[in-house]
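Fold it.
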Amino acid sequence: MAKQRSARAVFLGKVKRFAGDSRVQIATGLILIVTGVLEIFESAFIEMFGWSIGAHHGVIVFGTVQVLYALTEILEGFENIELSEVSEEIERIEEVIDESSGSDT
């Protein structure tokens, strides 16, 4: 029974990583936006440019939100990488200062 739980946990972890991946979220959002826009154009031509709010409007909004969410995660990741690089550089500078001040005495 314990093996089934661990296999299930491994599977769910992989699915969560896949679904949470920013690239997957951007791709999903872009697909939703494109299909929503295509549906709007199709509806517009069929209805002779009459106004009709349907599911395609929600798809466009949902897709836009998904892309924006994924972009914020990507940008946050870049920011974390930059902060990490800056803190490493600060540590290197402090080591050089410590070494030079130790050799002066």
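The chain has a mean pLDDT of 76.
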